[in-house]
Design goal:
Layout (H helix, E strand, L loop, with lengths): L3 E6 L9 H8 L5 H9 L3 E3 L2 E2 L11 E6 L3 E2 L11 E4 L3 E6 L16 H8 L5 E2 L2 E2 L2 E2 L8 E7 L2 H12 L4 E9 L6 E4 L4 E2 L7 E2 L10 E9 L2 E8 L6 H8 L15 E4 L2 E4 L5 E9 L6 E5 L4 H16 L1
Parallel strand pairs: 5-9, 11-20
Antiparallel strand pairs: 1-4, 2-3, 2-4, 6-7, 7-11, 8-9, 10-11, 12-17, 12-20, 13-16, 14-15, 16-17, 18-19, 20-21
Helix pairs in contact: 1-2
Length: about 325
């Protein structure tokens, strides 16, 4: 790919609007944040002069510049097996297994979902100046289930807006310690960074943000429960923090006090990860504007533990 020049004349309808907003409409397929970066770098001119993303345009202003060719990311494509729930030219939906890190980070430079998607999807478009998948939302390493990724900047922006305005429906399944007294309810405790342990989130943070989690008991056992959980907000570790805060930590959740092993019917069961699964996701397709729902079946470790609890109750 090569760089491409552009030139636009500001119409009356856009007089008084911001430069970065104007470019985002004219240059579809590029995010406003990426275009704002080009403006700051002096790659965009208004009437021949460099300026700021926030400058207000006037009628008949000439906006011109150069779009650099998208860069190949430094990350390497890796042939990692993926369970594909849906794929088209705009997006891909996978059933992420537990243990798979979503995005490269210190300590995890490879073997991630992004590396796998770079190998799986040769038709990726430029996002923020790079050829890479757009990670719209993330799941913790040890959380399994439905995850959607964008193949273009347009799709990424559209899906990100859906997550921001809470029109996305996200439903999880969680195996927890104890049995709630009610059949359903909501937790509305605010969440922020833990005041002491920076690896944790907490409902006792110095700078909390509002958080809301709706839940219902999908199946009850003796001393445990399988909860169906709806996220109304998207705070880090929200389900794990809220469940622990109300006295029902997730089984296997070492970080928030969930039991790591159980003694069931005389057998010691080791739980290697938090029992949390992103079960159901509903979005609106960015291009076709149709609502689409995806479901990932309960993974073998959670299904096996739930079945054991169910059988023990039946024989009690």
């Amino acid at each position: 790919m090569t760089e491409s020049a552009f030139r636009f004349t500001v119409p009356e309808a856009w007089a008084g609007q911001r430069l970065d907003q104007f470019l985002a409409i004219c240059l579809t397929g590029h995010s406003r944040a990426f275009l704002a970066g080009l403006i700051r770098e002096g790659q965009v001119m208004v009437n021949g002069l460099s300026t700021k993303p926030s400058v207000r345009l006037r009628l008949a202003d000439i906006v011109s510049g150069i779009l650099p060719p998208p860069r190949a990311v430094e990350l390497k494509p890796e042939p990692i097996d993926l369970s594909i729930l849906y794929e088209d030219q705009d997006l891909i939906v996978i059933n992420k297994p537990s243990g798979l890190v979503v995005h490269p980070a210190p300590g995890h430079p490879g073997g991630t979902l992004v590396n796998a998607l770079l190998h799986r999807c040769p038709d990726l478009g430029p996002i923020a100046g790079e050829i890479r998948p757009g990670i719209v939302h993330r799941l913790d390493k040890d959380t399994s289930g439905v995850l959607v990724a964008a193949k273009s900047a347009f799709t990424l922006d559209h899906l990100a807006r859906q997550f921001k305005d809470r029109s996305v429906e996200k439903t999880y399944l969680a195996l927890v310690k104890g049995h709630p007294r009610a059949d359903s309810g909501k937790v509305t405790l605010p969440i922020g960074r833990h005041p002491v342990d920076r690896k944790k989130m907490s409902v006792h943070s110095r700078r909390p943000r509002s958080a809301e989690t709706a839940w219902r008991v999908k199946e009850g056992y003796s001393g445990y429960a399988l909860l169906e959980v709806r996220l109304m907000t998207g705070r880090t570790h929200q389900i794990r923090v809220h469940c622990a805060a109300v006295g029902h930590p997730l089984l296997g959740d070492r970080l928030y006090g969930g039991p790591n092993d159980l003694l069931l019917g005389g057998t010691r069961i080791v739980i290697p990860r938090q029992m949390l699964h992103a079960w159901h996701l509903t979005i609106r397709h960015p291009v076709r504007q149709t609502r689409m729902s995806f479901e990932a079946p309960l993974p073998p470790d959670m299904a096996g533990l739930a079945d054991m609890l169910r059988r023990l109750d039946a024989t009690a």
